[in-house]
Every structure is written in structure tokens, then in C-alpha cells.
Amino acid sequence: MELAALLFVPFLLLLPVVIASGELAAHPGYADTTCGVAEAGAPERREEFDGGRIVDISHYYRDDMPAWESGEGVGEFLRLARSMRNGSDIANFSELRLTAHSGTHVDAPGHVFEHYYDAGFDVDTLDLAVLNGPALLVDVPRDSNITAAVMESLHIPKGVRRVLFRTLNTDRKLMWKKEFDTSYVGFMKDGAQWLVDNTDIKLVGVDYLSVGAFDECIPAHLVFLEKREVILVEALNLEHIIPGIYTLHCLPLRLRGAEGSPARCILIK
Asked: pTM for the full model?
């Protein structure tokens, strides 16, 4: 049913840098964030693989990545705790320090429901069958948050289980700005309720740090996560991708007890 529904979608698309402490230098992976040609001998960093068949839609982590309600970004999240540089260690060991809802990440029911958190409905309980499979990327009208009227106008067929919503957030490159922006586009409560009541969607992907618009952030989350049937994937990198049907693979870390987790997400054409 899911794949059959997606076959109708092509017709619908016509519708409306880490700085280490002390004497340790920045990791070379964060020395230059431009997208030019790699210097001779430098590792190549790509968004597309296998001739463009595989596209990475997760943001790479950086200290100036936006963080929820912060003007300072994520900050120093990676440091080389033990280094081979001075000869005292036989291997390099880095340490991570960041919230579970940083960058591209998933939300578990315990994120907004205390009883689900206490009962153990964490990211390790999320259904991998939902996180992986055929997915539809749609462009959302750029003049509105995602309301019930907007959801209805998208005409997403029954049977489609995974939808990635590209919005004005991508056009404004909000995930590339250090300061958190409260004017980002997201779901209003009625839009979330319309999706739950009228579609078969079980995975909702968005292009900023929250699926819910700032003024209705928690109400929208409550609607989506109340029945533990919808998985939320937030802060996806949906630039330069043509709307259409893909195979999505999204894998959060197995963090038992955590209500969210960073995730690596890819699309396969």
C-alpha cells in the first residue's frame, strides 16, 4: 500500500570548528567550512555519494550550529582528551559534549511526556521499520506555518508513511546561522492534528530544530507523540534536493534512557 501510494506522487509535485583546549589545534575537519575543491592531500568531504545516488541529509556538527533558544550556537562540543601529539598516548581519543537534540536528531515520546519518559519509551524503543523505507520530500508553501489548511493542500495520498517537509527554513539557511531564530517555520497544533487524523504518515521530517512552530512548539509535539505512533526527525539538510520519492535511512544512536538522539540520515535515489 505504501509504495503504491507513492507512485501517484509525481503528479502531486506539480501542486502548489572545533577548537580544542590548551595547546591542541582545531581538528582539520573543521578548519574550513567552504564547499570548494579540496586542497591537494586533504580529505574530500561530500554530501553525495555513488555518483549522486546517495545524498546525506544530516548536518555536520560544528560549534556555530544553532542551538535551541541560544545566540551562542552549540559551542565547543568536541575535544581531543588524549593526544598522540606529545607522545604520551598511543592513540587519539576525543570526547563529545552536546545535548541529545543538537543538529539533525530524532525525538522519542519521553521528550514531552513525563510518563513515557519514566516508562522507558526512549530512542532505543523507536521502530527502525518506520525510520527506514520509501519517503516523500515535499515543498511547503512559503508564506505560512504548517496549518491544517496547508496540510490539506499538499494532497498527500493515503498509504504514504514518511514525509520530509521542506520549508522557508531551507531557503533562509537557518541551520547555517549561529543564532537561534524564533521565526522558523513549523507545524501549528491544528496542522499536526490534521496529519494524525487524515494521513498514514508515521515519520515527519523537518528542516529546523523543532517540528512545532515556536509559538506552538509543545502543543504540536504533544499531538504527534501522544500515541507513540509518529517519529519526529528534526534539523534535516534538504538543500539542493528535488522533491520526489526516495528511500530514507535514518539511524539514531542506541541511547537507552535518552528522549532524543543525534541521527545520520540519508536519501537514496
From this structure: 0.86
